[in-house]
Amino acid sequence: xxxxxxxxxxxxxxxxxxxxxxxxxxxxxxxxxxxxxxxxxxxxxxxxxxxxxxxxxxxxxxxxxxxxxxxxxxxxxxxxxxxxxxxxxxxxxxxxxxxxxxxxxxxxxxxxxxxxxxxxxxxxxxxxxxxxxxxxxxxxxxxxxxxxxxxxxxxxxxxxxxxxxxxxxxxxxxxxxxxxxxxxxxxxxxxxxxxxxxxxxxxxxxxxxxxxxxxxxxxxxxxxxxxxxxxxxxxxxxxxxxxxxxxxxxxxxxxxxxxxxxxxxxxxxxxxxxxxxxxxxxxxxxxxxxxxxxxxxxxxxxxxxxxxxxxxxxxxxxxxxxxxxxx
Length: 327
Prior knowledge:
By secondary structure, the protein is α+β, with helices and mostly antiparallel strands. The protein has helices at residues 10-19, 29-42, 77-80, 102-105, 141-164, 175-191, 206-213, 215-232, 256-274, 300-317, and strands at residues 46-52, 56-63, 69-71, 87-89, 112-119, 125-133, 196-204, 238-243, 246-252, 284-292. Helix content is 42%, strand content 21%.
């Protein structure tokens, strides 16, 4: 058996998957409808909507298979997400990647597999719509096109889920997305005994930008700040716009030194962004820091409240034109 290699951007891919908020949720008719259709159209015993997580593939819809998930290292779909087109395995017993795979030599005794990647709007391959059979077979070009069309139906449903957890203007997570993804991040940190830090960032003077230059310029300022966050923080960190001019970043496996270093990088990026702009249009912000450790037992909402209070202490204590620092 040959396990699929982990792609270089896997952390960002998994973060995009978690941001959907669909992992470990109950079955939904909108996804089951597609797998039932696939099972009937291709006359196969098994059809799945498979989402490839860090260490597992989890089935949002599962027709013809009892288990809700399997380890990632034995999954066919972990290979399928490495390519853009439908991946087809006509006979798994003749394929060096799968001939001794537990899913082949034991139940469900997979012989045939075909999976169409589920790609989000940012180009991340989150999983597949796949069909499996107990006997060898091959797809025609028409079959492959049909499987891609069905995968597009699943993709649109996933995009709808993404829209519910994403801030339209900045493409960062919104509050709901932060609560879903942040909760997952803290669970991982708890399991691996890692610290976390949450930064609360509030733009200073943002109302004046809107009032003097109009809402279009205000929107552009928010987008510039969001882009600065993406440049500074790691793919594994969770950035979100809570609303208005309030942003947060949840940093996993991070202590105070890591948070302060990130703020230093952010300050440099913002200074570069402000270069050449009139002072009235410059980005300025106050920052608050909240600390989390595995023994605390606090959740993402507790962290938000702590960081919000720290940010307002900072805002009151510093002059309007001062540089940010955390308290």
